[in-house]
């Protein structure tokens, strides 16, 4: 999936039909306030008023963690993680003591 960042700080995400202004935690784009046409986005890119980024296909662990509970990891996501970044919370069981710890993975924007 592509993301466009305009020179004045707005972000738009590529959807199946157009460019929209929000993305869910699962990485699917949706419209909150603005829907922009492909022609407008292409004009901004060609004139240098916007830059294109891509979301990585791989999940990357955040440096923070592990967390003792899924709720603690979810609270950290709400408080500290970029709202536009797709995240997942995954458990890992320590076989030595049977204790479950939780990690946060994300997908990051990368340049083309």
How does this model look, in words?
- This protein is α+β, with helices and mostly antiparallel strands.
- Helix content is 18%, strand content 42%.
- The strands form two sheets. It has a six-stranded antiparallel beta sheet with strand order 4-3-2-1-5-9, covered by helices on one side. A three-stranded antiparallel beta sheet has the order 6-8-7, covered by helices on one side.
- The mean pLDDT is 84.
List keywords for this structure.
3-stranded antiparallel sheet, alpha+beta, 112 residues, 2 helices, 9 strands
Overall average residue pLDDT? 84
Structural class: alpha+beta
The radius of gyration is 17 Å
SSE series: EEEEHEEHEEE
Instruction: Tally the beta strands.
Output: 9
Q: Order of strands in the sheet with the most strands?
A: 4-3-2-1-5-9
| Largest beta-sheet details | 6 strands, antiparallel
Low-pLDDT parts are: none
Question: End-to-end span in angstroms?
Answer: 11 Å
| Distinct helical segment count | 2
- How much helix is in the residues? 10-25%
Shape: elongated
How large is the share of residues in beta strands?
A: 35-45%
Write the layout of secondary structure elements.
Blueprint: E1 2-6, E2 11-14, E3 19-23, E4 29-36, H1 38-46, E5 50-55, E6 60-61, H2 70-80, E7 87-93, E8 100-106, E9 109-111
Antiparallel strand pairs: 1-2, 1-5, 2-3, 3-4, 5-9, 6-8, 7-8
